[in-house]
Amino acid sequence: MKVGTKVLLVGTTLLCLQGNVNAGSVAGFGGSTEVTQILNNLQLIQSYEQQVQAYVRQGLQVQHELQNLIANPTSVLGPEVGQMINTIGQIWNGGNTMGYNLAQIDKNFATTFKSPTAGNFAKMFTSWHQTNTDTLQSALRTIGTQRDQYASSQAALTDLYNRSQATNGNLDSLQTLSQINIRQIQELQKLQELMASQAQAATTYMASQTAKDQKGLDDATGLMQPYQRPIPAAQSAPAPKWNLFGR
């Protein structure tokens, strides 16, 4: 099953669970801020998952174009390379932003609701964000610079490409871009899997809370049964007999 399908199914499941959890407020859980926040987080993950899918498609298209240029590096055109650099930079920025946001959201959730699971996901998203950042940073270190020296990722990639081209020629500069792009695609796929794992964990948690809520209701009903007396059915009085003849 594809990651996108997994997240969609998880989202549908959670939306179904929402009604059950909110309805079962006997145990004091239904409609809580925690439940609402979990559902909000799921909706954000669904939105991010669609964006990641779009980034992966863009990255694969750029990779196809790069492979064509690598096969014939003498035909490199400035505008073509410039557009590919812009796309790679936009993908890098978008992925990094999503990873950072999810890490912060999970960190805040873990602190607010004392959730070890959310704390673990915060660490995993933070680790992913750092790894993805290193994808560009390691390439820039080869030319003696770093990301924060540039106004944008696109500017950093442009400088990296131009310096590599001046030193090693078209082929090496294109291969450098290709390596960065491939690494980004791989990291985005890992981000998809991580988001799907978090959504699945949320589903499992919500289902367990729903079960506890229902059990609390059942237990309360069972405790009350010995003290409940059956209500007798209403009985009609017999109709009076009238002696119309005085006998």
UniProtKB/TrEMBL annotation:
<keyword id="KW-0732">Signal</keyword>
<protein>
    <submittedName>
        <fullName>Conjugal transfer protein TrbJ</fullName>
    </submittedName>
</protein>
<feature type="signal peptide">
    <location>
        <begin position="1"/>
        <end position="23"/>
    </location>
</feature>
